[in-house]
Write a structure and sequence with these properties.
This protein has 218 residues and is mostly helical. Helix 4 packs across helix 6.
């Protein structure tokens, strides 16, 4: 039974990652997933009562690779806030490159789950705060991220301004000193974030194709 359940889960995730990336998260119905995966609807619902549960499984893989990229770009001698700035800037930029990624990221940010990491990054600014406190703060900063992701860039609101606005707002929430904020923004401005995001996107797609054993048609 365990082996069958594992194989069913693999089939569902394989179908979902392709459908979400090619057709969009919101446009993909449960019926479409079940048909694509070739599994019984009851088996699907036993493993994933909601699409949100599937998204959590997928975004763990998607976000994990980006943390690695962010840490590799932000020098280890720099404070952790620099890696945070690179990672969030990458995510915001990725949503400008692919509309289906935009949907996935917006949905993912409706379910805060990085409180432990935020505590590790910003804990020194809140010595008495628990992980629960950071979870509550993350609800607010996740809302900021969702709203900035949902607002597409244009000539009146270019990517550079979007990144600056989001980073400034979030760093203020986490009590990053103004002088340090300016240094972080200058650091992000020195990176070709668009070119980096394109590279990350291609690596992300390749990783997902390999992990879930499918091939994107786009």
């Amino acid at each position: 039974m365990r082996r069958n359940s594992s194989e069913t889960k693999r089939k569902i995730l394989t179908a979902c990652v392709r459908l979400f990336l090619e057709e969009g998260y919101k446009s993909t119905s449960v019926s479409r997933i079940v048909e694509e995966a070739g599994v019984a609807r009851g088996s699907y619902l036993n493993l994933f009562p909601t699409k949100d549960k599937i998204l959590l499984d997928l975004t763990e893989s998607m976000f994990g690779g980006q943390f690695d990229v962010a840490r590799s770009i932000a020098d280890k001698k720099l404070p952790p806030v620099y890696a945070y700035a690179v990672e969030t800037s990458l995510q915001l930029t990725l949503t400008e490159l692919n509309e289906n990624l935009r949907e996935i990221y917006i949905e993912a940010y409706s379910q805060p789950d990085t409180a432990a990491e935020l505590k590790q990054i910003f804990g020194a600014n809140f010595p008495d705060y628990s992980e629960s406190d950071f979870y509550e703060m993350e609800i607010g900063t996740s809302g900021l991220m969702r709203n900035y992701m949902a607002r597409k860039c244009d000539i009146h609101f270019p990517l550079e301004r979007k990144l600056s606005r989001f980073l400034t707002a979030s760093m203020r929430v986490y009590r990053v000193p103004e002088e340090e904020q300016a240094k972080v923004l200058a650091f992000i401005g020195s990176i070709d974030i668009r070119e980096l995001a394109v590279t990350v996107m291609h690596k992300l797609f390749a990783m997902l194709e390999m992990k879930y054993d499918f091939k994107l048609s786009t």
